[in-house]
């Protein structure tokens, strides 16, 4: 094995030994978590769980998202490896977005959280009302 290959192998091994800690300010997992769990990231991923979709259809599915925020969210998720953008060579060109295998795994975990929150909303709304009453007193 050449010195360069050994160096590369050593670097890869050291990278695998790194411990990522999202609570640390400089941890590279923190922006990825933000992309996935931010308001639009989670909603985009939930919509993409249904399968490949074009931009405007995705915009209709994610009610309230602006074109700019949808575009930024898709780009961030694509950069992180959760979403893939596929351009089909038709006239006019057709662009679809879909989850990668990693993105599907993340989205399934998010879906569990979303379903849990939806099922507990009556309790949460009651707790919010009680908090608001106490804060107003």
From TrEMBL:
CDD domains per UniProt: HTH_ARSR (cd00090)
Gene3D superfamilies: Winged helix-like DNA-binding domain superfamily/Winged helix DNA-binding domain (1.10.10.10)
Stretches assigned to the HTH hxlR-type domain: 27-125
UniProt key word Zinc: no
Taxonomy, superkingdom: Bacteria
Stored InterPro entries: ArsR-like_HTH (IPR011991), HTH_HxlR (IPR002577), WH-like_DNA-bd_sf (IPR036388), WH_DNA-bd_sf (IPR036390)
Keyword annotations: DNA-binding, Transcription, Transcription regulation
Name used for this protein in its record: Helix-turn-helix transcriptional regulator
Organism, as annotated: Catenulispora pinistramenti
